[in-house]
Amino acid sequence: AQSVTQLGSHVSVSEGALVLLRCNYSSSVPPYLFWYVQYPNQGLQLLLKYTSAATLVKGINGFEAEFKKSETSFHLTKPSAHMSDAAEYFCAVRRGSGNTGKLIFGQGTTLQVKP
Amino acid sequence: EPEVTQTPSHQVTQMGQEVILHCVPISNHLYFYWYRQILGQKVEFLVSFYNNEISEKSEIFDDQFSVERPDGSNFTLKIRSTKLEDSAMYFCASSDEGDTEAFFGQGTRLTVV
After folding, report:
1. Could you read off the pLDDT of A40-49 as tens digits, one per residue?
2. Do A49 and B101 touch (CB under 8 A)?
């Protein structure tokens, strides 16, 4: 079975500050991990993904995440927050082999960016 | 850039009515999915579809739900007798053989009144 836990349903940062959104996963098989962003009244956009290659993954809009197997974590970071980063962020896991397979999502973290 | 297209963007229906949500996946994709997101909650998997049959479904996907690929381009989700608790954003997604991620549509917001 697989699951995802996102620590912190709301994160607030100042513009220009570091963004850190936490994600821990549980998986009995090697996982693929994803971060999606959802802007208000929009769909899900893939930010980045880990698929068993490099453990440090770079995505769009300056975001990156590091896969740490020992900590079962896949935290999302961005060095300097921008007002446009305000959105809902979802971490997701799927099994890392076979067909594409279903995604298991975390509860989501709302990122607020203050001027 | 190819994308998954969902229609309508917003559907309002009366409780007990049947509703069909439409999706046009990316044209060469083979795997299709429906997810839903109740307001303020996480995105939940409903069903996956491959080779003209359901490959996996969640406990949410009960007998009131069905999916169909009526032609070579559309993928539909039908809810036979809608309930208030079916109100949610429904996302369609698709992927190709070997893809590591699914591509999501913009969603259909279903409101049951």
Report:
1. 878 889 999 9
2. yes
